[in-house]
Design goal:
This protein has 281 residues and is α/β, with parallel strands linked by helices. It contains ten helices and eight strands. It binds flavin-adenine dinucleotide. The site of flavin-adenine dinucleotide has 24 residues, from helix 4, helix 5 and strand 6.
């Protein structure tokens, strides 16, 4: 496995002390795979602001490079600037800059701040102090007017100063390869890292995929449905499928992998082992 391949791991902020303790164990175990960084999600509309901040600052203080996900939500520029300044104090070097979504029930009330505007805001206030990641959608963002529009807006995020992008998860590698080609044709030269979603639970995956516009190909749906409540078979199938996906991506020049760990050590650890990574590599 090439040293140039960038690996990163995404967490969400747990709500309980027990969840935090468990996550520290997961972080320590995944940290042995020498990831470029961990990242911590930000609840829709800033709903996890304090939890995300605490986790990100604690992890960085403990020596684990960790990037906060960030969006304006309903916050003012002063609040966001203050939050970023706090991150800087804790030696945060990377931010995942998003438009985000509003929590259900608040839809459409506020003007959303697009991710390119957040990127421009951070560059304006903090110069080049942070590496800025943005989101990309190989199967196209559900609200996008067209394929080309979505790529144009992605380019706008890079033009505003983003350094790289992480994709929404997908199960069809051709969607990623075609998207990467289209981005290149549109003048995007920055790396676009595939987001990888392990499969552990079909009902949750189906619900989430419908909401975020990630396609589960029919044959995969049918296969997962055929397992019913047999969690072990779902996991085994998922590991084989996603190991193959990762291998195909890396064999065809994807620059790295970003794992949506769902705060679980398994199956991300198994996927990495299947790809030839070992802890303390
Ligand atoms: P944008 O890039 O701003 O795009 C949003 C939509 O508007 C797209 O349809 C785009 O085509 C269109 N658009 C973009 N710019 C403009 C413009 N200037 N004018 C008109 N239309 C425009 N959500 C969370 O709530 N918390 C998280 O922590 C989180 N982490 C994520 C991490 C990754 C890697 C990814 C891929 C997604 C994540 N999301 C998260 C989901 C994300 O917030 C949603 O998909 C959201 O709807 C879009 O955010 P964005 O940053 O991609 O938005």
């Amino acid at each position: 496995m090439s040293d140039d391949i960038r690996i990163s791991f995404e967490f969400f902020p747990p709500k309980t002390d027990r969840g935090r303790e468990k996550l520290i164990d997961v972080r320590n175990a995944l940290g042995k795979f020498a990831p470029a960084f961990f990242s911590v999600t930000y609840g829709a509309g800033g709903s996890t602001r304090d939890n995300t901040k605490r986790l990100v600052c604690d992890f960085n203080d403990a020596g684990f490079a960790t990037a906060p996900h960030l969006s304006f939500g309903g916050d003012t520029e002063a609040t966001i600037e203050q939050l970023i300044a706090e991150y800087r104090e804790h030696k945060v070097q990377r931010i995942v800059a998003l438009r985000g979504d509003l929590p259900s029930g608040m839809g459409g009330v506020r003007n959303m701040v697009y991710a390119n505007q957040l990127v421009a805001f951070i560059r304006d206030k903090f110069g080049d102090e942070f590496h800025l990641e943005v989101a990309a959608y190989p199967e196209i963002h559900p609200e996008a007017k067209s394929y080309q529009d979505d790529i144009r807006y992605l380019k706008g995020k890079f033009d505003a100063g983003a350094n790289s992008a992480i994709t929404q998860y997908f199960f069809n590698p051709d969607a990623y390869f075609y998207f990467a080609d289209q981005c290149q044709a549109a003048g995007i030269s920055q790396p676009i890292y595939p987001g990888i979603m392990p499969i552990t639970n079909y009902a949750n995956l189906a619900r989430f995929s419908d909401a975020c516009g990630a396609e589960i190909p029919r044959w995969i749906r049918k296969k997962l449905e055929s397992f019913g409540d047999d969690a072990e078979s779902i996991k085994a199938f998922g590991i084989d499928l996603i190991s193959d996906l990762c291998e195909t991506l890396l064999d065809n020049d994807a620059p790295g992998l970003h794992f949506y760990t769902m705060n679980q050590l398994e199956p991300t650890q198994t996927l990495l082992n299947n790809l030839g990574y070992s802890a303390d590599a």
